[in-house]
Amino acid sequence: MPGMKILPLLLLCLPVAAHAAWVDFEGEFEEEKPWVEVAAQLPTYPKVENLIPFDVSAATRNRFFIDAASISVGSDGVVRYTVVVEAAGGAKNVSYEGLRCASGERRLYAYGHPDGNWSKARNAGWEPVKFRSLLSYHKALFEDHFCPDGISVRDAKQAVQSLRRASR
Protein backbone atom coordinates (compact mmCIF):
# COMPACT_ATOMS: atom_id res chain seq x y z
CA MET A 1 0.00 0.00 0.00
CA PRO A 2 1.47 3.36 -1.05
CA GLY A 3 -0.15 5.35 1.80
CA MET A 4 1.58 3.24 4.44
CA LYS A 5 5.04 4.41 3.28
CA ILE A 6 4.07 8.06 3.75
CA LEU A 7 2.58 7.60 7.24
CA PRO A 8 5.94 7.15 9.05
CA LEU A 9 7.30 10.21 7.26
CA LEU A 10 4.29 12.28 8.36
CA LEU A 11 4.64 11.04 11.92
CA LEU A 12 8.27 12.17 11.92
CA CYS A 13 7.26 15.67 10.75
CA LEU A 14 4.51 16.10 13.35
CA PRO A 15 6.81 17.05 16.30
CA VAL A 16 8.64 19.61 14.13
CA ALA A 17 5.35 21.22 13.06
CA ALA A 18 4.06 21.24 16.65
CA HIS A 19 7.28 22.87 17.87
CA ALA A 20 7.11 25.54 15.16
CA ALA A 21 3.50 26.32 16.12
CA TRP A 22 4.47 26.59 19.82
CA VAL A 23 7.38 28.92 19.06
CA ASP A 24 5.06 31.13 17.02
CA PHE A 25 2.50 31.07 19.88
CA GLU A 26 5.12 32.12 22.44
CA GLY A 27 6.47 34.79 20.13
CA GLU A 28 3.08 36.47 19.88
CA PHE A 29 2.99 36.96 23.65
CA GLU A 30 6.63 37.65 24.33
CA GLU A 31 7.13 40.21 21.58
CA GLU A 32 7.51 43.63 23.10
CA LYS A 33 5.11 46.09 21.67
CA PRO A 34 6.48 49.61 21.31
CA TRP A 35 5.43 51.96 24.09
CA VAL A 36 3.02 54.67 23.02
CA GLU A 37 2.37 57.73 25.17
CA VAL A 38 -1.21 58.91 25.50
CA ALA A 39 -1.93 62.58 24.95
CA ALA A 40 -1.64 64.54 28.19
CA GLN A 41 -4.52 66.84 29.13
CA LEU A 42 -3.62 69.94 31.10
CA PRO A 43 -5.31 69.99 34.51
CA THR A 44 -6.98 72.98 36.09
CA TYR A 45 -4.55 75.34 37.77
CA PRO A 46 -3.71 74.17 41.33
CA LYS A 47 -5.70 75.49 44.30
CA VAL A 48 -4.02 75.97 47.68
CA GLU A 49 -6.48 73.63 49.42
CA ASN A 50 -5.42 70.74 47.13
CA LEU A 51 -1.67 71.07 47.72
CA ILE A 52 0.04 68.25 49.61
CA PRO A 53 3.58 68.93 50.86
CA PHE A 54 6.30 66.34 50.34
CA ASP A 55 9.90 66.09 51.52
CA VAL A 56 12.83 66.12 49.14
CA SER A 57 15.93 66.68 51.28
CA ALA A 58 17.12 68.52 54.34
CA ALA A 59 19.75 70.04 52.01
CA THR A 60 17.20 72.45 50.48
CA ARG A 61 15.13 75.25 51.97
CA ASN A 62 12.60 75.04 49.13
CA ARG A 63 9.16 73.65 49.86
CA PHE A 64 7.53 71.16 47.51
CA PHE A 65 3.84 70.42 46.92
CA ILE A 66 1.75 68.20 44.67
CA ASP A 67 -1.73 69.24 43.57
CA ALA A 68 -3.82 66.21 44.57
CA ALA A 69 -6.53 67.07 42.04
CA SER A 70 -4.06 66.91 39.15
CA ILE A 71 -2.68 63.40 39.71
CA SER A 72 -3.55 60.80 37.10
CA VAL A 73 -2.19 57.42 36.08
CA GLY A 74 -2.52 56.92 32.33
CA SER A 75 -3.08 53.69 30.43
CA ASP A 76 0.48 54.25 29.18
CA GLY A 77 1.82 53.83 32.74
CA VAL A 78 2.73 57.51 33.16
CA VAL A 79 1.92 59.20 36.47
CA ARG A 80 1.06 62.83 35.70
CA TYR A 81 0.86 65.59 38.30
CA THR A 82 1.24 69.29 38.99
CA VAL A 83 4.15 70.25 41.22
CA VAL A 84 4.55 73.57 43.03
CA VAL A 85 8.02 74.54 44.23
CA GLU A 86 8.18 77.44 46.66
CA ALA A 87 11.63 78.99 47.06
CA ALA A 88 12.84 80.22 50.43
CA GLY A 89 12.36 83.81 49.20
CA GLY A 90 8.71 83.16 48.33
CA ALA A 91 8.91 82.72 44.54
CA LYS A 92 6.75 79.87 43.19
CA ASN A 93 7.29 77.63 40.20
CA VAL A 94 4.35 75.58 38.94
CA SER A 95 4.69 72.83 36.34
CA TYR A 96 2.71 69.92 34.97
CA GLU A 97 4.91 66.83 34.63
CA GLY A 98 4.96 63.08 34.21
CA LEU A 99 6.97 60.16 35.57
CA ARG A 100 7.38 56.95 33.61
CA CYS A 101 8.05 54.31 36.25
CA ALA A 102 8.98 51.52 33.83
CA SER A 103 11.93 53.46 32.43
CA GLY A 104 12.86 55.85 35.27
CA GLU A 105 12.15 58.90 33.14
CA ARG A 106 10.44 62.24 33.64
CA ARG A 107 8.84 64.75 31.31
CA LEU A 108 7.78 68.37 31.59
CA TYR A 109 4.49 69.15 29.81
CA ALA A 110 3.72 72.75 30.78
CA TYR A 111 4.63 75.70 32.97
CA GLY A 112 2.07 77.45 35.15
CA HIS A 113 1.76 81.23 35.28
CA PRO A 114 0.55 83.36 38.23
CA ASP A 115 -2.55 84.34 36.24
CA GLY A 116 -3.69 80.68 36.28
CA ASN A 117 -2.79 79.86 32.68
CA TRP A 118 -0.45 77.22 31.29
CA SER A 119 2.19 77.48 28.57
CA LYS A 120 3.27 74.31 26.83
CA ALA A 121 6.89 73.32 27.34
CA ARG A 122 8.88 73.39 24.11
CA ASN A 123 11.05 70.46 23.06
CA ALA A 124 10.42 68.74 26.37
CA GLY A 125 11.08 65.07 25.80
CA TRP A 126 11.62 62.24 28.23
CA GLU A 127 14.75 62.55 30.39
CA PRO A 128 16.23 60.20 32.99
CA VAL A 129 15.41 60.91 36.64
CA LYS A 130 18.58 62.03 38.47
CA PHE A 131 18.69 59.38 41.17
CA ARG A 132 22.02 60.56 42.61
CA SER A 133 20.87 64.11 43.32
CA LEU A 134 19.70 64.87 46.86
CA LEU A 135 17.86 67.92 45.53
CA SER A 136 15.83 66.08 42.88
CA TYR A 137 12.14 66.21 43.69
CA HIS A 138 11.64 63.81 40.77
CA LYS A 139 13.75 61.27 42.65
CA ALA A 140 11.70 61.76 45.81
CA LEU A 141 8.40 61.40 43.94
CA PHE A 142 9.65 58.38 42.00
CA GLU A 143 11.09 56.44 44.93
CA ASP A 144 8.75 57.45 47.74
CA HIS A 145 5.33 58.04 46.22
CA PHE A 146 4.59 57.33 42.56
CA CYS A 147 6.92 54.46 41.60
CA PRO A 148 7.81 52.47 44.73
CA ASP A 149 10.21 49.67 43.75
CA GLY A 150 10.00 50.98 40.16
CA ILE A 151 6.33 50.00 39.84
CA SER A 152 3.69 52.61 39.11
CA VAL A 153 0.95 53.27 41.63
CA ARG A 154 -2.40 51.81 40.52
CA ASP A 155 -4.30 55.07 40.47
CA ALA A 156 -4.43 58.66 41.72
CA LYS A 157 -6.02 57.58 45.00
CA GLN A 158 -3.02 55.42 45.88
CA ALA A 159 -0.63 58.26 45.01
CA VAL A 160 -2.57 60.75 47.16
CA GLN A 161 -2.64 58.29 50.08
CA SER A 162 1.14 57.90 49.88
CA LEU A 163 1.69 61.66 49.86
CA ARG A 164 -0.74 62.25 52.75
CA ARG A 165 0.81 59.46 54.86
CA ALA A 166 4.23 61.01 54.47
CA SER A 167 3.09 64.56 55.21
CA ARG A 168 1.67 63.74 58.65
From TrEMBL:
Q: Which keywords, in A-to-Z order, does the entry hold?
A: Lipoprotein, Signal
Return the protein name.
Putative lipoprotein
InterPro entries recorded: CNP1-like_dom (IPR014861)
- Tell me where the signal peptide lies: 1-20
Taxonomically, the superkingdom here is Bacteria
Sequence ranges assigned to domain CNP1-like uncharacterised in this UniProt record: 31-164
| A family per Pfam | CNP1
